[in-house]
Amino acid sequence: MLCNSESKPELESQILKDFLAADVRAIIFMGGRLDNLNCDSASIQEIEDVSKRIPVISCVDYPGLHCVQVFQDVHSSTLDLLKHLSGRGYKDIALLGGSTYVRTTRNRREEILNYAEDFGVNVRREVIDSDYSVAGGYVAMSQLLDKPNRPQAVICINDMVAAGALSAIQNRHLRTPQDIAVTGYDNLEISRYIYHGITTIACDYIAYSEAIVNAIKQIDDLDNGSRIAVQTSLIIGGTTRL
Where are the domains positioned within the chain? Predict the structure, then answer.
């Protein structure tokens, strides 16, 4: 059974009730309220209550959540990205795209800000929010380029935003990576065919899927609160390297 709640909490609650009524073997919960930083405690409690009857597998890294979690671990890859940018001489970096109220976005930003100094990199605290689309990346990058003191590089919240940012840079008659370097996240297919490839942090989605399926197979042996991290890797493309 596959349901899309369109990130509407009331629809998610109804779907959970339908799954309980269908007596499914397990529930895989991707995004939705778990990725919303403004999610109220009652909504989280609802998921934990359901998990007591039917195992819930969360695909969001949500510390303290009482259900099995399978999530992407970007920590080591983020350090690799900062090391790569520093080694290429990019010391002044801006963050671009995403929403402050999305947990995954907040986690990615904090990871970068917390470790930037370890690599001699200055990451600007002012972040330009946008949605997660190519159009959002274009608008956000245009706003950034309107400001004085253009950064040497931008870390975009995903590859779609990075693609939009690259278009905005080109329209200003700037070059990538000579004038400004660009990186993304997720290693989407689009990242392989633009500017000799976008430098991005990649999740192995086959391994990720297998981890979720294995969690279902072993669900009776997993503690309610088990955390399974799927490692990511840095892919270096033409947006940071000539």
Answer: 9-73+204-231, 75-203
- How does pLDDT run along the chain (242 residues), one tens digit per residue? 999 998 788 999 999 999 999 999 999 999 889 999 888 999 999 999 999 999 999 999 998 899 999 999 999 999 999 999 999 999 999 999 999 999 999 999 999 999 999 999 999 999 999 999 999 999 999 999 999 999 999 999 999 999 999 999 999 999 999 999 999 999 998 888 887 899 999 988 899 999 999 999 999 899 888 999 999 999 999 999 87
The topology under which CATH files domain 75-203 is Rossmann fold (3.40.50)
The neighbouring-strand residues paired with 228 are 70
Q: Is the pTM of this model over 0.70?
A: yes
Output the CA angle 238-97-124, nearest 5 degrees. Answer: 85
Domain spanning 9-73+204-231: CATH 3.40.50: yes
Q: Which of 131, 196, 126 is nearest to 154 (CA)?
A: 126
